[in-house]
Amino acid sequence: MYNPDFWEVRLDHSDLERYPDQSALWFETIEERRLQRRSQARARRLFGPVMEFVSASLTQRQREALLLYFVHGKTQEEVAEIMGINRRVVSQHLFGIRRNGRQVGGAVPRLRRLCRQHGISAES
Q1: CATH code at 30-117
Q2: Model-level pTM?
Q3: Type and span of the H or E element at 112
């Protein structure tokens, strides 16, 4: 099918060889790869304990919203549609609300508090 916005251009492979790897979008330095591996290892190590907090400490609706939003990468709008509620309620399940100057509810604040209590920090 013809698409006037897309033009296919033939390019000799040797033309691509002239550009250094460092200019490629996917290029990572050795330090960036090391940091990425370290971050992934940390995430794997902390996933179990955090999921225990999720299972033991959150309501069913908070768990569902949290997993859809953070683990499955859904937007709040998509989570709302899946759960049959409006986006504002999804936000409240995830982040809570301020009532009379105090934080009320929310899965994320509760998980942060539990992590602090159990010595799990961003540097763990």
Answers
A1: 1.10.10
A2: 0.66
A3: helix 107-117
